[in-house]
Structures are given as C-alpha cells and as structure tokens.
Write a structure and sequence with these properties.
Helix content is 37%, strand content 25%. It is built from 10 helices and 16 strands.
Length: 426
C-alpha cells in the first residue's frame, strides 16, 4: 500500500510539472497581455476593444469564438460578451468566466504601465482575470490528451454594475452554445500573498441591493427654519437610524451591511432645500435577512419623516434599483471541496487556504441558474508577501493605488484554473 501511494504521488508530481513548465513559458506573453489591458481600460458597457482583444487571442488558440453576446434591453447599449468553445470528445461542459470591465477611478499607482485613460482604471483586477483566462485556455489547448469534454470560456462585460451576466443569459447563452455541468471563476484578492489560492464553501459573496431614498421636505430660507420642514436634518437622522437595523434588528450571527455612500441636497448655505437624496448599498447573505432588512429600510425613513411633521404627500420615496442588485455568490460545497482537494494535492496545503465569506458582491452566481448548476469562485492572492509581513497598509480592490504583483498572481491563477478544469474533465 505504501509503495502504491509513492507511485501515485510520483505520477501526480510528474503530471503537474509539465504544467508548471508550460505556464513559465507562457508567462512573459501573459504579462504583456495584462499590461496592455491595464494600460487601456474600458468601463462597464464600453468594453469594445477589450472584448475584441480577448476574442482575437482565443481564436488564435483554436477555440470557436462568438462575440457581441448579450442583451441589456437598453436602447443604444451594445453588449460585448465573448464565448469561446473547445469540444474535445464526450464529457462534461465546464464554464470558465472572466470579467472584463474597469472602474471610473483615476489611477495613482505610478506604474510604468499605468492606465492611459483619464479617470478609468483596472482597480479590481479584471485585467489579471483576463490574462488568467487566456493562460488557462492556452495550456488546455496544448494538453488535450489529458481531458475530455467541452471547455466554455466566457468573457463577461459589465460585472461592476452587475448587469453583464444577466445580459448574456438573456441572450439565450446556454441554448445557443451549451449548458454547463459546472461553472468556475477566479478573482484576485488584495489581502493574500500573490499566487496563494483561497476557497470558501457555501456563501462566499453577499447579496447586493442598490437603494435610493429621496427625503422630501418643505424648503425655505435658512434663517426661518420654523417655516420649513428641513429634509437635511431628516436625512441626517435617517443615516444614523439606518445603522440600528444592523445593530438592533438583526442577529449578530447574520452578517449585514447598510452603507450610505452618497448624499445629495441643497444649493446654498442659506437655503433649506425641498429634497435630499441618499444612495445606499445593502449587503446580506440569507434571503430572509435580505427581505427583512429591505423592509426596515422602507419603514425607517417614513417613520422619521412622520415624527418631523412632514405631510403624507411628502413622505420619503424608497426605491430599489434592480438593475444594480445581485444575488449572493453561493459556492456549491461539494464542488468547492472537490476543487480544493485537487489544488492542495498539486499546489500544496500552504498554497491553498480556506477563507471566510466576503461582503463584496458579484453577478457570477447568475451562471448557476439559482443552484441548478454547481458553481465555484476561487480567489488568488495579489499582494507582495513582504508587504504583508511589513504590516504596511494594503490598498484594497477599487482603490486608486491597487497594484497586484502580476507574475506571481497570474502564475498561481493560471495553475489553479487549469488544474480545476482538468479535475472536472479528467
């Protein structure tokens, strides 16, 4: 039995080594691709050149590629989704997704390959993800003797506004191409050492709901507040009261975030305005918690306005922007544990770690059809380990200073995704 174990271990090591060699051979090209993408980012719903670059590289690798996949159902909006297929005999269909859009952020990294587009930056690592997809596609095309089935590569636009996945599904993605047996993805992580892989069975990323609250008052002169119903004061009370939903209406064992990210109201210091608007992001995991929190957000502003003497016909308006809302990312536990075992076997326990759920959000979960298709999103560390050890401040995703370590991050991500596909199509 011991001899058999040694033989299996040797075979596993031998099988993994050529993949490492292939990744090293492709790495300079992948880093060039990453830097090109980083230099020329495009924001959500405008990924025309980015998607064309992804599609061109996948075609050159021998994949059957279709582009402009997706339907936003908005006049004048083109969806730049990319689908690349490679069938290699009978077997499962594995969907591998990358996102492609950048953020409206002015880059402050000082990198020689920093964004050349004013106020647009790949501050969330989607350029890393695209380079990873191309690297994974490259390796899989070279080792077709090791897998059987179909690889379905997705270049998804508009992830940052959580509309791209829904648009591609609306365009009959699975009916036109193939319904996947599994769907997997990887996202960079701004807290983990570059190249380290992280997994989380079950809830991994939160529901997100975009809520707009319009506080309506009765404006007037700033020197005569008694003749008005001041929406600024009401808005201030609402901002504070909303936090009691988290601290006093919700179990501390059920994570909830209610953040007021923007307040708009007023034009001049001595004018009490008629309206103030609040823009919220709300994060939850459980469906019942989500429903209860949103109901409380509907109730609290109206109660405060009533107490302030605002008439019923001027009661606050609470709206949920469904277009910017997305369900939680739920990693199928069996699939996630299966991939974690495979990755630990080939990458080592120290390089594959379990992490806690995150309150950030994604629309990758839409590819799972509400749990009908097992999905799993992994993370890859993107930070210089020495910087973590020093205790220095680590710029987060969406920061103007976020700068992943490209070589180690891409190397780890490509290996993890390649091994994951091989595990599912072996």
């Amino acid at each position: 039995m011991k001899a058999l174990a040694l033989i299996l271990l040797a075979a596993t090591t031998a099988a993994a080594q050529p993949i490492d060699s292939m990744i090293e051979r492709e790495l300079p090209s992948l880093i060039d691709t990453y830097k090109t993408l980083h230099t020329s980012p495009e924001v959500s719903m405008q990924e025309e050149k980015t998607s064309a670059m992804v599609a061109t590289q996948l075609r050159a690798l021998g994949y059957t590629v279709a582009d402009h996949i997706g339907d936003y159902q908005q006049a004048g909006k083109t969806c730049y989704g990319v689908v690349a297929m490679m069938k290699n005999g009978d077997g499962p269909v594995v969907l591998v997704r990358t996102d492609m859009d950048a953020l409206p952020v002015q880059e402050q990294t000082g990198l020689p390959y920093a964004s050349r587009i004013a106020n647009v930056m790949h501050a969330c690592g989607h350029d890393i993800h695209m380079a990873t997809l191309i690297g994974t596609a490259t390796i899989l095309a070279q080792i077709k003797d090791r897998w059987h089935g179909t690889v379905m590569l997705i270049g998804q636009p508009a992830e940052e506004v959580v509309q791209g996945a829904a648009a591609m599904m609306r365009d009959r993605l699975y009916e036109r191409f193939a319904r996947p047996t599994y769907a997997i993805a990887i996202h960079d992580n701004s807290s983990l050492p570059a190249g380290q892989i992280a997994y989380c069975p079950g809830f991994f990323m939160a529901n997100t709901d975009a809520v707009n609250i319009t506080i309506r008052g009765l404006g007037g002169h700033g020197a005569r507040p008694e003749l008005t119903k001041d929406p600024v004061v009401v808005a201030a009370e609402v901002v504070l009261a909303l936090q009691t939903i988290v601290s006093r209406e919700n179990s501390p064992l059920d994570p909830v975030v209610v953040t007021v990210g923007a307040i708009h109201g007023g034009t001049k210091r001595n004018i009490i305005p008629d309206e103030v608007s609040l823009l919220l992001t709300v994060r939850t995991f459980k469906p019942e918690v989500r429903k209860r929190v949103l109901a409380s957000i509907e109730r609290v502003p109206k109660g405060i306005a009533l107490a302030a003497g605002i008439p019923d016909d001027r009661a606050p308006i609470v709206e949920i922007n469904r277009a910017e809302s997305a369900d939680a990312t739920y990693n199928d536990p069996a699939l996630t544990e299966r991939l974690a075992r495979a990755l630990k076997r080939d990458m080592g326990d120290r390089n594959v770690v379990q992490v806690d759920p995150l309150m950030v959000s994604e629309d990758f979960g839409r590819f799972g059809l509400d749990g009908k298709i097992p999905i799993c999103m992994l993370n890859v560390g993107a930070v210089d380990p020495a910087k973590i050890a020093s205790g220095a401040r680590l710029p987060s995703l969406h920061s103007s200073e976020f700068a992943p370590v490209p070589d180690a991050t891409i190397r780890g991500a490509v290996k993890a995704m390649t091994l994951s596909v091989l595990e599912l199509l072996r």
